């Protein structure tokens, strides 16, 4: 217990003293996961929204595969990306292995099914209730998906947070394709794994505290944003605000 | 299936056809196990005000949705006259936008440039008495105001045919009156055809010129409104419609 409490106090000290080594890892981790989240959401929200309203032969099979992809272990994604990016792989010419880009690619592929599946479910639920009213106004599948996704944008914020959370918390894929190179591809999760194996528990715990704080902060922000929008939605809209944000 | 023998069809008259259903069959549910409309034939002429009545599950909403092209047809077809068609639902779906922008989106979805939607949207809001609330979020309006906003969104399209699925069913009496007044005004516009479903027989008497009685997805009676309510022969010619009327007016 003493070891644990000592580790916690040392970890807090490291965080508060703005230890450059720790914060470099935190910054890299945030950059990799935020980029992956951005890419995955850009594709995933669009595809998910379309899939939520589109009806076509084989849709059930597509959704089954998509849902199965949610459970793919991150090490498997890492392994596939490793093979693709390795010198003899199809994208070996890019020279991305053990780089920032490789980690972004692996995390993007890992969280893309999450973005698509959750968006698809959210949009499909609201489409089932109200989609035909939009269709009655003349909205075709693409626009219906886009309008419903836009209308459910605060619910989709939760999807974005989930995607980011899954990206920043994963360790297997970035370990394989990033290589955990100090000062280059070391991120929070791989650093925690390494420091723990080395017995440097304060550093591992410090990183863990930062990781938890980041996730907590994001959730708090989303919660605040939702409450603020609920207040705005029930109040008169400013006369000058004629755009889509009205 | 045509309305049963002995039940008069409303004479076609010289007016052009606004909407026609021929042998309409619609199946719903998993595997299309529920036959919601069974070979229904119907012709509605321009300027007619047609009420669709019947018990819950009789096929009223299905008929309106099928006529608006929102449901796949198993058999039969729907022919539409000239002009646009608009549909209103019991609980309108409004986007998380201002009242004005909700109307603008409706116009924009019809192919109008976003910039060109402003003026007609304003006119539509003024028409339903919501101009003062134009910048209020559509979702923040009361039930009656939301339904009037949905009416404005539809009216902005200048439809020739209105399909209204129990548009006042979930409203309080005051809001019900407001919406009904608007419906009557829109129906009075030249060349406008109204087809609405309702459980409110008073409303049917006030608004309709013709009544369709549906049961089990079949059109059992198709009569002018005065005959539907006053003709005691209905008890003999269409007992289900008579029983429905007795039940509703009891």
Note the topology:
The complex is a heterodimer of chains A (246) and B (250).
Chain A (H helix, E strand, L loop, with lengths): L1 H15 L3 H34 L5 H11 L4 H12 L14 H37 L4 H11 L1 H17 L2 H7 L9 H11 L2 H33 L13
Helix pairs in contact in A: 1-10, 2-5, 2-6, 2-7, 3-5, 4-5, 4-8, 5-6, 5-7, 5-8, 7-10, 9-10
Chain B lengths: L16 E12 L5 E12 L3 E5 L6 H8 L7 E6 L3 E5 L10 H11 L8 H10 L15 H13 L3 E7 L7 H16 L4 E5 L3 H7 L2 E6 L2 E7 H6 L3 H4 L1 H11 L1
Parallel strand pairs in B: 3-7, 3-8, 5-6, 6-7
Antiparallel strand pairs in B: 1-2, 1-4, 8-9
Can you describe this structure?
- The complex is a heterodimer of chains A (246) and B (250).
- Chain A has 246 residues and is mainly α.
- Chain A has one domain (2-230): Orthogonal Bundle (MetI-like fold).
- Chain A contains ten helices and no strands.
- The N and C termini of chain A lie far apart (55 Å).
- Chain B is globular, with a radius of gyration of 18 Å.
- Chain B has a single domain, classed as 3-Layer(aba) Sandwich (Rossmann fold).
- Mean pLDDT of chain B is 91; it is low at 1-9.
- Helix content of chain B is 34%, strand content 26%.
Number of helices of chain B: 9
Following the backbone from N to C, one meets helices and strands of chain B in this order, namely EEEHEEHHHEHEHEEHHH
Count the helices of chain A. How many? Answer: 10
The CATH topology of chain B is Rossmann fold
Give me the Rg of chain B, rounded: 18 Å
As a percent range, the share of strand residues of chain B is 25-35%
- Beta-strand proportion of chain A: under 5%
Mean pLDDT of chain B: 91
CATH superfamily of chain A: MetI-like
* CATH architecture annotation name of chain B: 3-Layer(aba) Sandwich
Low-pLDDT runs of 5+ residues of chain B are: 1-9
Instruction: Give the total of beta strands of chain A.
Output: 0
Question: Rough shape of chain B?
Answer: globular
Shape of chain A: globular
Straight-line distance between termini of chain B: 30 Å
CATH superfamily of chain B: P-loop containing nucleotide triphosphate hydrolases
Assembly level: heterodimer
């Amino acid at each position: 217990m003493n070891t644990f409490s000592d580790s916690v106090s040392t970890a807090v000290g490291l965080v508060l003293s703005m230890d450059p080594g720790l914060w470099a890892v935190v910054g890299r981790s945030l950059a990799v996961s935020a980029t992956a989240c951005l890419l995955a959401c850009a594709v995933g929200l669009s595809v998910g929204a379309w899939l939520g309203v589109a009806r076509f032969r084989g849709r059930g099979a597509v959704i089954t595969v998509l849902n199965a992809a949610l459970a793919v272990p991150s090490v498997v994604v890492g392994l596939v990306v490793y093979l693709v990016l390795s010198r003899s792989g199809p994208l070996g010419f890019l020279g991305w292995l053990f780089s920032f880009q490789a980690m972004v690619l692996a995390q993007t592929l890992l969280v893309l099914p999450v973005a698509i599946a959750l968006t698809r479910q959210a949009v499909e639920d609201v489409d089932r209730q109200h989609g035909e009213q939009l269709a009655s106004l003349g909205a075709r599948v693409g626009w219906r998906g886009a309008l419903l996704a836009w209308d459910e944008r605060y619910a989709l914020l939760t999807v974005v947070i989930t995607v980011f959370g899954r990206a920043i918390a994963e360790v297997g894929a970035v370990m394989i394709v990033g290589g955990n190179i100090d000062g280059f591809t070391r991120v929070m999760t791989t650093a925690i794994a390494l420091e723990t194996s080395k017995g440097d528990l304060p550093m591992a715990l410090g990183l863990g505290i930062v990781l938890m704080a980041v996730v907590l902060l994001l959730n708090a922000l989303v919660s605040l944003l939702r409450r603020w929008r609920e207040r705005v939605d029930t109040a008169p809209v400013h006369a000058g605000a004629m755009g889509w944000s009205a | 299936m045509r309305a049963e023998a002995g039940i008069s069809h409303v004479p076609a008259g010289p007016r052009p056809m606004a909407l026609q259903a021929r042998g309409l069959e619609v199946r719903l549910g998993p595997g299309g196990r529920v036959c919601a409309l069974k070979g229904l034939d119907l012709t509605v002429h321009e300027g007619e005000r047609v009420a669709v009545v019947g018990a819950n599950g009789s096929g009223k909403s299905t008929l309106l949705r099928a006529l608006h092209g929102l449901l796949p047809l198993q058999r039969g077809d729907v022919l539409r006259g000239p002009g646009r068609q608009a549909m209103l639902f019991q609980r309108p779906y409004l986007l998380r936008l201002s009242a004005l922008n909700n109307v603008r989106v409706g116009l924009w979805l019809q192919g109008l440039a976003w910039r060109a939607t402003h003026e007609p949207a304003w006119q539509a809001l003024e028409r339903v008495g919501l101009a003062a609330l134009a910048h209020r979020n559509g979702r923040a309006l009361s039930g009656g105001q939301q339904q009037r906003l949905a009416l404005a969104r539809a009216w902005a399209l200048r439809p020739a045919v209105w399909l209204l699925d129990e548009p006042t069913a979930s409203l309080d009496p005051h809001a019900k009156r407001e919406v009904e007044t608007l419906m009557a005004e829109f129906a009075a516009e030249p060349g406008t055809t109204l087809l609405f479903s309702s459980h409110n027989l008073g409303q049917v008497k006030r608004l309709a010129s013709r009544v369709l009685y549906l049961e089990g997805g079949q059109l059992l009676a198709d009569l002018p409104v005065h005959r539907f309510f006053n003709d005691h022969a209905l008890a003999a010619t269409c007992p289900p419609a008579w029983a429905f009327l007795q039940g509703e007016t009891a």
